[in-house]
Amino acid sequence: MKHILSSPEAGAYIGKSESTMRQSKTAKSKRRPAAQEGLSMRPPRQPSQYPREFRRQRQVERICQTPRLVAELLAEIGRHYGLAVDIDRRLERYSRLNPELLHALGADRFPPPPLRAVR
Questions:
Q1: Using an 8 Å Cβ cutoff, are 55 and 44 in contact?
Q2: Mind listing the pLDDT tens digit for each residue in 106-118?
Q3: pTM to 2 decimals?
Q4: Domain boundaries, given as residue ranges, for the chain
Q5: Which of 2, 11, 65, 84 could tie 78 with a disulfide, CB 3.0–4.6 Å?
């Protein structure tokens, strides 16, 4: 069974037996935690998924006002995960979308946040 990997480190496990994987994980546990190295491997815990998604949407709206920031972010992700070719292919596909059609369909903006009743 093939898996889509989200990090190059995960790719090291393809083709290894479970015992080899356990040994590799044990050896890695001796390394300093990423937080001590100044890198956080996990996002901060959130009470639910929605606040994270909503915050991400607002952040995307802010950085999309400056195209250079978007380009830098995509280049950084491409370098970090070895996805530059995939990102370039997807950018090409997205750049062919018709902005007028997206606007007419309402697909050019995020949906509004849900309203909550206050009693």
A1: no
A2: 999 998 887 776 7
A3: 0.53
A4: 71-109
A5: 84
